[in-house]
Design goal:
Protein name: Argonaute complex, subunit Arb1
Biased composition (Basic residues): 64-78
Shape: globular
Distance between the termini: 108 Å
Region (Disordered): 1-82, 476-504
Biased composition (Polar residues): 1-11
Order of helices and strands: HHHHHHHHHEEHHEHEEHEEHEHE
Strand order of the largest sheet: 5-4-3-6-7
Organism: Rhypophila decipiens
């Protein structure tokens, strides 16, 4: 191999950089081959006196690039709320610890349930929605769920938790506590030192939560409602599985049944509420109620949520109303109620409990079918109707002005209702509605429905206390005849005489 002159030895790297490295295009080594395809030696075919250096570059096969494997997300960890999830079995050591240290019967109930709530949160993965729902359930049961000022995971530095046991960390970071003692007592929450007006009632709290609290939160969102009820059911199962309070085990099981009933009944309640008061009562309200608040429209039978765009007219409403009355009650009454002298003589709003539901008998059903066939050519859809029997009920809802204070209805009364609605109602449900009384035979119909409540409806006074604030001294005097606009003047910065300290 020829050696390169010294003055050109520094240009080797430059020459290499000028080479055409094109092996990836099937041309590697072409420059180092003679026309016959044989490799040439360095300097071969070149004048040695030209002072050029020749470098033999051998190209190796390009290394195959490894396919970059994207990070595959691992399996999601169980949240504890899956459909077929169950708590793992306890080891003998864990079982003995729970029986003798954590949940023994000789330990106060408040201590056991407090630790149970904290351990339940630690063993479940709750998203923000589920966390809010569970906190509202605990608050309804008198457990303080407010964030503690200098504790909880929002305030504790992870370095401060090093060296502590799981139980100690859980106790430091927990927000769910049962209040104790008389220091800074908050009357919103249960305190074992002041047990008046409180009692342990798992079933009652579950009923109040499923019928009022979560209903207000979810409105008509069935998925959110179901998630909330399933969360409480999961917690109650945890309480029973770990034998937290054996003295209340039957009450815990009743609460579980309330949750199961809620999951079955509440979707139907929401569905039937959208149908009320039905085609018959809608026609009656159109005929006899002056100044309807909204345009009266005919309900389509083939859809739960859609309605006909065409409003009811007088003849159609009269046919629907008169035919149903004639079939179910008396033809003569039907004539008088559809006559020119028919009128509403009384309208009142009240709360009633459903005590009986009567579907149409075979005779009435055949009459409805025959009448429907006759009316179909003129575009009138006649629905089969039946009866609902109700009686007045005093409803506890947190308001002092009861709807039944001046109600003239004292006993049981029947109302005509569409059969498609009757099939979804249940005895024991509560209905708040406006009732109209006619001048013919004391006939009554439902003008409008304000609310339909489930059979397990329970209102808990604690719902009114959750946002309660203790009164504090107010140094500003109340408005008086001498200073009627005091509040506005104080906000505007106008100097006024300070009054005596007073409690508000």
């Amino acid at each position: 191999m020829a050696s390169a002159p010294e003055n050109n030895s520094a240009t080797v790297e430059d020459e290499v950089s000028k080479l055409d490295l094109s092996e990836t295009h099937g041309q590697s080594g072409e420059e180092n081959k003679d026309p016959e395809g044989q490799p040439q030696e360095p300097g071969e075919g070149e004048g040695e006196g030209e002072g050029k250096s020749t470098v033999l570059v051998q190209h190796s096969e390009p290394a195959k690039k490894k396919k970059s494997r994207g990070r595959k997300g691992g399996k999601k960890k169980a949240t504890g709320f899956e459909e077929f999830f169950c708590d793992p079995p306890l080891t003998p050591k864990e079982y003995e610890e729970e029986k003798t240290v954590i949940y023994p019967l000789d330990r106060p109930f408040v201590d056991r349930i407090e630790e149970c709530i904290q351990r339940f949160r630690a063993r479940r993965r709750m998203d923000s929605e589920r966390d809010v729902v569970f906190s509202r359930y605990l608050a309804l049961g008198g457990v303080d769920c407010t964030t503690r000022q200098f504790q909880s995971t929002r305030k504790v530095d992870p370095e401060d938790l090093e060296g502590l046991s799981k139980a100690e960390v859980r106790e430091i970071t927990a927000d769910d506590v049962v209040q104790r003692g008389d220091v800074k007592q908050d009357r919103r929450w249960y305190n074992p030192e002041h047990p008046e007006h409180w009692e342990v009632d798992f079933a009652g709290v579950a009923a109040g939560f499923c019928s009022v609290e979560i209903s207000d939160l979810a409105v008509s969102d069935e998925s959110l409602y179901r998630m909330g009820v399933e969360t409480i059911f999961n917690f109650l199962k945890y309480v029973e599985h770990h034998e937290v309070c054996l003295e209340y085990v039957e009450d815990v099981r009743k609460a579980q049944k309330v949750c199961e009933t809620a999951l079955d009944e509440m979707p139907t309640v929401v569905k039937v509420t959208s149908k009320l008061p039905g085609a018959f009562n809608t026609a009656a309200a159109y005929l006899f109620c002056d100044g309807p608040e909204e345009e009266v429209i005919a309900i389509r039978e083939d859809s739960d949520w859609q309605v006909d765009q065409k409003p009811l007219d007088g003849p159609t409403a009269r046919v629907i109303f008169g035919t149903a009355v004639a079939i179910l009650l008396d033809p003569e009454l039907g004539k008088s109620l559809t006559g020119p002298d028919a009128a509403v003589v009384d309208t009142e709003e009240g709360t009633f409990e459903i005590v009986n539901i009567s579907l149409a008998n075979d005779r009435a059903r055949s009459w409805f079918r025959s009448a429907s066939n006759h009316l179909k050519p003129i575009g009138v859809k006649l629905q089969t109707c039946g009866f609902i029997t109700v009686r007045p009920k005093d409803l506890m809802d947190g308001y002092d002005n009861s709807l039944n204070e001046a109600l003239s209805i004292t006993g049981e009364v029947k109302f005509i209702l569409d059969e498609s609605i009757l099939q979804d109602l249940k005895v024991g449900q509560t209905i708040q509605m406006t009732v109209c009384t006619m001048n013919a035979g004391g006939f009554k119909f439902i003008k409008s429905v304000r609310q339909l409540l489930p059979t397990f409806y329970t209102f808990l006074p604690q719902k009114l206390m959750v946002k309660f604030k203790e009164p504090v001294p107010d140094r500003r005097p109340a408005p008086s005849i001498h200073s009627p606009n005091y509040q506005e003047e104080a906000l505007a910065g106008i100097p006024v005489d300070n009054g005596e300290e007073m409690d508000v």
